[in-house]
Automatic annotation (TrEMBL):
Lineage: Bacteria, Bacillati, Actinomycetota, Actinomycetes, Micromonosporales
Domain HTH merR-type: 1-71
Record carries keyword DNA-binding: yes
Family matches, as PANTHER family: HTH MERR-TYPE DOMAIN-CONTAINING PROTEIN, REDOX-CYCLING DRUG-SENSING TRANSCRIPTIONAL ACTIVATOR SOXR
Protein name: DNA-binding transcriptional MerR regulator
A single MF term (Gene Ontology): DNA-binding transcription factor activity
Superkingdom field: Bacteria
Alphabetized CDD domains for the sequence: HTH_MerR-like (cd00592)
Gene3D superfamilies documented for this protein: 1.10.1660.10
Keywords: DNA-binding
Protein's organism: Actinoplanes italicus
């Protein structure tokens, strides 16, 4: 018994176009033809098409199928690679589901990086925008440090003072605010110091542009001063006194 191209396609659950494409790339052997020129597909062709369909359903690419042949070790190697890729995909999708679960809660917002919804309420629009940019420039570990610091200082007076700082703030106000912010950035004085150091010049330039676009000149001056203070040596405690 033999089948036409249309019949073999229907039997294997694929399209005629797909059958022809498999011929073009050498994945399916050409069948014999009748005297009238029509193809005569046999059982071996149906089996091959069903094998290809099963493998593609498992995520095996056509190039991989063509290279697999009958070598069992080679086939197993391909399956292990696909399984590893699938594991990573599942992990990524599970992460997406966790994020969607958070975002589906009342009050949740999508304009902060993953993990920051717990502190989103205390952030203003420019803070959220900066965090989104920073999440692309810095490591997950660095962003986790930022999140922990924000959680440790929810809506405190220092945050409000910085956010409300007018562009024409005087010298004394700027310096006092910088001295209050500096301990949060200093590894010697903070439990979770915010020390974000760009790893490339491009990241440094992007971070600088973001800061200039989102904060006024007085706020930027305070940040520069606080950063300079953290570069100074930490004073030694007098002898006999606890640190």
């Amino acid at each position: 018994m033999s089948w036409s191209t249309r019949e073999i396609a229907e039997l294997s659950g694929i399209t005629v176009k797909t059958v022809r494409y498999y011929h073009e790339i050498g994945l399916l052997e050409e069948p014999d033809r009748k005297s009238n020129g029509y193809k005569q597909y046999e059982v071996r062709h149906l089996v091959r098409l069903l094998q290809i369909k099963r493998l593609t359903g498992l995520g095996v690419g056509l190039t991989q199928i063509a290279a697999m042949g009958t070598d069992l070790d080679g086939q197993a190697s391909v399956f292990r690679v696909i399984d590893t890729e699938l594991e990573a995909t599942i992990e990524r999708l599970q992460g997406i589901r966790r994020e969607l679960a958070v975002l589906s809660q009342p009050g949740a917002v999508p304009d902060v990086p993953p993990g920051f919804n717990g502190v989103a309420e205390q952030l203003r629009d420019n803070d959220r925008a900066l965090l989104m940019i920073y999440s692309q420039l810095f490591s997950d570990e660095s962003m986790e440090t930022v999140r922990q610091t924000l959680e440790a200082h929810p809506n405190d007076a220092l945050d409000e003072a910085f956010r409300d700082l007018p562009e024409d703030a005087d010298e004394v106000t700027r310096q006092a605010l910088a001295e209050q912010l500096a301990p949060l950035m200093n590894p010697a004085t903070a439990a979770n110091p915010v020390t974000l150091e760009p790893q490339t010049e491009a990241a440094r330039a992007t971070a600088g542009q973001a800061l200039q676009a989102l904060y006024n000149s007085a706020q930027l001056d305070v940040l520069r001063r606080a950063h300079q203070i953290t570069r100074l040596p930490v004073p030694e405690a007098p002898s006999g006194e606890s640190r």
